[in-house]
Structure formats: structure tokens, C-alpha cells
Amino acid sequence: MDEITLWLDPVCPYSWTTARWLRSVADKEGFVPRWELMSLAVLNEGRELPPPQAERMRASRSVGRLFASLARTLDDDGMWSAYAAFGEAFFERGAPFDDRLVGEVLRACAATGSHEQSPSDETLDAAVRASHERGQRALGDSGGSPIVSIGGTAFFGPVLTSLPGQAAGPELFLALKALAAIPEFSQLQRPRPVRH
């Protein structure tokens, strides 16, 4: 099986959906996804953003540092455990990113060592940036979160507004895998449905 890598910004809701979809098809399709960081904060550096987006970029930096710290000691299964705990709290329960959530994430992945202070540790920014830049190079362009790479062919997306059904999830993966095998294929897009 080709190597499957997902670059994600942990605070991006589309990444949360794409990661759960990818994890749901991994066993059936016989692969273990690699989890890598990308950073919407790095991607948006130097841009004037409205206050809610600027606040999300501050969260991106702090959460990115936590996951960069964890990536030093955890394997892909451990990183998934950490991200799943974060996503369940942050996206599903609306929990703020604070010391309590950091503790919840660390317990979920049985992290050892001192990760508690990582969200404010600016020395971790270099690791976040390096992972982000690897994702951009894999894509061959500037792209947001998520980025999925199949056997070295990377796509921005898939951007999923909700989880595909039990049958549709594997079908989507096989379709993406088929597109990755066609070197002439470049882009396919349709408008996102309007949310009310």
C-alpha cells in the first residue's frame, strides 16, 4: 500500500472531519495514516484578518506547539489518540483550549515527559514551520488544511463538510487513490453547500 500522509492544522474543522474519515477507512484499505502538522497561522502570516480569524490563528500557534512537542515522542497511533481527544473536546464539545484540555490530550495519549508548557514554548515554532513547509512542498503550491498525500501525490483536501456514510467513505478513498495515479490530473472542485 502507498504511504498515506495527512497534513492538518489541529484547529481546522475540515481537518477534523477529513482525519476521522481517513482513520475510518484505514483498516479496511490496509494502511496506517501518517499525521503531520501544517499551520494556518504560518500560511496566513502577514495578512490582515478579521478578529475571529486572528484569534483562530493564535490558537493555531498554541495547539501546533503542543502537537509538535508530542510528535517528538509519539508514533502515528499515539498522535491519533492525542488528536482524537483534542477534536472531541474542541470541536464536538466546544471546549476552550486551556490547561484542562491540554491535560485531557496528554492523558489520552499517555504522553510522558513535560508537554504541559509546550503551548507557550516558542522554540517549537520551528518544528511546526518545518512540518508545514514539507506539506507545502509535497503539494507543490500554497494550500490550506487538510493536505492528503497518497504515494507521494498530494492534494489540498478532500474538504469534507461532514463524514461520508459507511459505504461512501471507502469509495471516496478509492476515488482519491485513482486520481493520485493519474499524473495529468490537476484539480477538481465544486462549491461547498451553504450552511444555515
From TrEMBL:
Protein name: DSBA-like thioredoxin domain-containing protein
Short name of any one Pfam family annotated for the protein: Rv2466c-like
Domain of life: Bacteria
InterPro entries in alphabetical order: Rv2466c-like, Thioredoxin-like_sf
